[in-house]
């Protein structure tokens, strides 16, 4: 089973929305979300402010926080808390597919331990990541 983890985005709706809708102002979030909905068994949103969010969870207000705004210790704490939430969701026995940049996946990797994961867009720039998602759809 594959579980997608999609990072939040600085581009957000101006009003409260469910997590899967709040970040749709971002083309990259939209592509990652669509990819997860098509290719993964389930998926979650990684929020700098709220941690792990269920896509269809309660509406949340827009906020202005990125993991790059936090110091190293705060990022480690965030990663540890998200992994705890993943364990509570019983998905750490599954393969985690992380659709996020380095600021988001590094704190997770420190806390994941032996959990199986992949980062399909690791090392890709923004435009290259968009192209990767487009290619996945074209290959169907």
UniProtKB/TrEMBL annotation:
InterPro entries on file: DUF6884
Domain DUF6884 residue range list: 3-135
Recorded superkingdom: Archaea
Name of a matching Pfam family: DUF6884
This protein's name: DUF6884 domain-containing protein
Organism: Halorussus aquaticus
């Amino acid at each position: 089973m594959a579980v997608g983890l999609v990072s939040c985005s600085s581009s957000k709706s101006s009003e409260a929305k469910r997590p899967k809708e709040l970040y749709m102002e971002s083309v990259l979030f939209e592509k990652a979300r669509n990819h997860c909905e098509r290719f993964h068994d389930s998926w979650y949103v990684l929020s700098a402010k709220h941690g792990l969010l269920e896509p269809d969870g309660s509406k949340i207000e827009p906020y202005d926080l990125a993991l790059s705004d936090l110091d190293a210790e705060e990022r480690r704490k965030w990663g540890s808390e998200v992994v705890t939430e993943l364990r509570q969701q019983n998905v750490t026995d599954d393969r985690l597919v992380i659709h996020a940049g380095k600021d988001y996946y590094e704190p997770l990797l420190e806390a994941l331990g032996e959990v199986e994961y992949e980062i399909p867009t690791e090392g890709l720039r923004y435009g290259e990541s968009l192209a990767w998602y487009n290619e996945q759809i074209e290959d169907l």
